[in-house]
């Protein structure tokens, strides 16, 4: 009984630490990819990551009996992947992930190397696996969306979330052929990641404006109407208004000459539904509620699948605004 209690405590402690690592990587990724998040929402996400990590750590410790630092770190990547794969495809994708991911984590554990114990090994492997998952998934799915003009299938998403942590461990083992000291290798990996973020990251240059209750005076009598024209998935670098060689948007160019032309505008979301909902309501996706959902949701369909939550009910949105 004492052994079980000790194993459970170790798993929960590992899960708490992994949750903090997940949150840090997510915050860095959000910053590097041009996102913004307020302090209250960041704290909520931190609480959820830590809570899911603790529960996952307890399950891993009891079910698998994993006790070593590498085993716990890589087993917890399965928990993190399960949270991410829930994003849209539905329960069949989640079940497929739970069948494949443990095998990938086992292979990663075998590759991680013997004699790696303690907090340093746990943090290094957790950081590598989480960063590979978050940044790898963001990059690969963006490339697929651009070239294939479709979102990743459930099978693709499962393969990415199961395989990317393994890819992170493989990269570490390749570096270990040259740099054998774990602490030095961790330092080099963090430094390489920082350089990559500095070169390829696109952080928001200014703080986002977040006014939950906009205190604006009513429009003066006779004020002109505001007309909103939305061109969905239109690339600025293929519009002559923004310097493209071919004359592709002459009317917008003419309008821009006698108006304000913003060349560094950012969307609060990377896809249509939450982006347009924010544009029309003035609220962040965390407030208006229009975003990804699973197959179980009864909302509208995209690509033949139930994919989105509709806008939150007016009273719920008002309560979010009042409480923020």
Description:
The protein has 324 residues and is mainly α. The chain has 3 domains: 2-200, no CATH class; 216-232 and 267-324, no CATH class; 235-265, no CATH class. Helices cover 61% and strands 1% of the residues. It has helices spanning 2-32, 39-63, 69-85, 91-111, 118-148, 154-176, 182-200, 250-257, 272-281, 285-288, 314-323; strands at 301-302, 305-306. β1 and β2 (305-306) form a beta hairpin. α4 runs parallel beside α6 (154-176) and α5 runs parallel beside α7. It is elongated and about 80 Å long. The chain starts with a helix and ends with a helix. The model is unreliable at 320-324 (pLDDT under 50).
State the main characteristics.
two-stranded antiparallel sheet; 324 residues; mainly alpha
Gist of the model:
The chain has 324 residues and is an all-alpha fold.
Tally of helical runs: 11
End-to-end separation:
46 Å
- Please indicate the count of domains: 3
Largest sheet: 2 strands, antiparallel
Topology of helices and strands:
Elements: H1 2-32, H2 39-63, H3 69-85, H4 91-111, H5 118-148, H6 154-176, H7 182-200, H8 250-257, H9 272-281, H10 285-288, E1 301-302, E2 305-306, H11 314-323
Antiparallel strand pairs: 1-2
Helix pairs in contact: 1-2, 1-3, 1-5, 2-3, 3-4, 3-5, 3-6, 4-6, 5-6, 5-7
